[in-house]
Amino acid sequence: MSGAIWVLNGPNLNRLGKREPEIYGRTTLAEVEAMCRAEAGDFPLVFRQTNSESELIGWIHEAIDEGAAGVVINPAAFTFYSMAVMDALKMVPCPLIELHISNVHKREEIYHHSLVSPVATAVMAGLGARGYRLAVRALIEMAGD
């Protein structure tokens, strides 16, 4: 889908609303997708989630090949240890927003060093599920610049 906003989600995000709601809230991934689509309006949007590192990398390559207007990625655990995801994201030529539902900097030390942040255009963390809506809005505005 040429010129689309791509929203990519990593492992365990399919469990949103059930997994540690005190950290991630009660909003489900289906609700997050609906929120993103509502925010995008007529702007094309691709929304995907995987628990597989290789599948996520394939989608990053697909977004590049399809000429994505922007990418929002919540790499989840891959944020902190996947050099392969980082290397794929280095190739993204459009605006790239790294997104985390929780404020990773207020959490345990293991969550403090992102391999993705140095290659991202912007980083959003701690805004809960509403961060996705804001990230989509930001990329649409960037696409208009």
TrEMBL record:
<comment type="function">
    <text>Catalyzes a trans-dehydration via an enolate intermediate.</text>
</comment>
<feature type="active site" description="Proton donor">
    <location>
        <position position="100"/>
    </location>
</feature>
<comment type="pathway">
    <text>Metabolic intermediate biosynthesis; chorismate biosynthesis; chorismate from D-erythrose 4-phosphate and phosphoenolpyruvate: step 3/7.</text>
</comment>
<comment type="subunit">
    <text>Homododecamer.</text>
</comment>
<comment type="similarity">
    <text>Belongs to the type-II 3-dehydroquinase family.</text>
</comment>
<feature type="binding site">
    <location>
        <begin position="101"/>
        <end position="102"/>
    </location>
    <ligand>
        <name>substrate</name>
    </ligand>
</feature>
<dbReference type="InterPro" id="IPR036441">
    <property type="entry name" value="DHquinase_II_sf"/>
</dbReference>
<feature type="binding site">
    <location>
        <position position="74"/>
    </location>
    <ligand>
        <name>substrate</name>
    </ligand>
</feature>
<protein>
    <recommendedName>
        <fullName>3-dehydroquinate dehydratase</fullName>
        <ecNumber>4.2.1.10</ecNumber>
    </recommendedName>
</protein>
<dbReference type="GO" id="GO:0009423">
    <property type="term" value="P:chorismate biosynthetic process"/>
</dbReference>
<keyword id="KW-0057">Aromatic amino acid biosynthesis</keyword>
<dbReference type="GO" id="GO:0019631">
    <property type="term" value="P:quinate catabolic process"/>
</dbReference>
<dbReference type="InterPro" id="IPR001874">
    <property type="entry name" value="DHquinase_II"/>
</dbReference>
<feature type="site" description="Transition state stabilizer">
    <location>
        <position position="19"/>
    </location>
</feature>
<dbReference type="GO" id="GO:0003855">
    <property type="term" value="F:3-dehydroquinate dehydratase activity"/>
</dbReference>
<dbReference type="Pfam" id="PF01220">
    <property type="entry name" value="DHquinase_II"/>
</dbReference>
<keyword id="KW-0456">Lyase</keyword>
<feature type="active site" description="Proton acceptor">
    <location>
        <position position="24"/>
    </location>
</feature>
<dbReference type="GO" id="GO:0009073">
    <property type="term" value="P:aromatic amino acid family biosynthetic process"/>
</dbReference>
<dbReference type="InterPro" id="IPR018509">
    <property type="entry name" value="DHquinase_II_CS"/>
</dbReference>
<keyword id="KW-0028">Amino-acid biosynthesis</keyword>
<dbReference type="GO" id="GO:0008652">
    <property type="term" value="P:amino acid biosynthetic process"/>
</dbReference>
<feature type="binding site">
    <location>
        <position position="87"/>
    </location>
    <ligand>
        <name>substrate</name>
    </ligand>
</feature>
